[in-house]
Design a protein that fits this description.
The chain is of the alpha+beta class. The chain has one domain (3-163): M1 Pyruvate Kinase, Domain 3, CATH 2.40.33. The protein has helices spanning 60-70, 115-120, 125-128, 159-163, and strands at 3-10, 18-20, 22-26, 30-31, 55-59, 83-86, 97-100, 103-110, 133-140, 142-145, 149-152. α1 (60-70) links the parallel β5 and β6 (83-86). It is globular, with a radius of gyration of 15 Å.
Length: 164
């Protein structure tokens, strides 16, 4: 079930996501340099004190399918998720710990496309990309890089889940 990190994106407040080859993730906080790490994201106030805004994932395969079916050419970064993956079923990580490099994460829930994303990118993302993203909590700080393996941690304790 191991997949890979295909792309990484961060965005400062009011700016488009920018690709990075590596980023530092900070436990209980987010990706250093990203708008949500700084508390400046569109939904930062709504998500204050909630681990859901720390890091988001989407599978490249889902974006590729959307582009094919809808005859669109959305770039991976346009969907405003932090990490684009390849070869991993993200929904299988909900409720489970997983690692990327030395950093550890806990899958929390689907990261659904919203009306704000639909209005800024493409209205078709709402029905077609539902249940494809993942919100996760960062349990252990570290550096993650494009090409890193994503591995579900078997036998991980439920202590982390209890903290979310």
């Amino acid at each position: 079930m191991n997949g890979k990190v295909l792309c990484i994106y961060i965005a400062e407040k009011g700016r488009k996501p920018a690709a990075r080859s590596s980023v530092r993730v900070e436990a209980n906080r987010g990706i250093v340099g990203d708008r949500y790490h700084e508390g400046a994201g569109t939904f930062s106030e709504k998500l204050a004190g909630n681990r859901k805004s720390e890091i988001t994932f989407i599978a490249s395969e889902e974006i590729d399918t959307f582009n094919t079916v809808q005859r669109e050419t959305l770039d991976y970064g346009e969907l405003r998720r932090n990490v684009v993956t390849r070869g991993v079923q993200l929904k299988a990580l909900i409720g489970h710990e997983f690692s990327i490099g030395a950093a550890r994460f806990l899958g929390i829930e689907h990261c659904e496309p919203c009306a704000h994303l639909a209005s800024t990118v493409n209205p078709k993302v709402l029905p077609h990309l539902a249940h494809t993203g993942l919100r996760a909590a960062i349990l252990t700080s570290g550096i993650i890089e494009v090409g890193d393996e994503i591995a579900r941690i078997t036998g991980a304790s439920s202590t982390a889940r209890d903290q979310i």
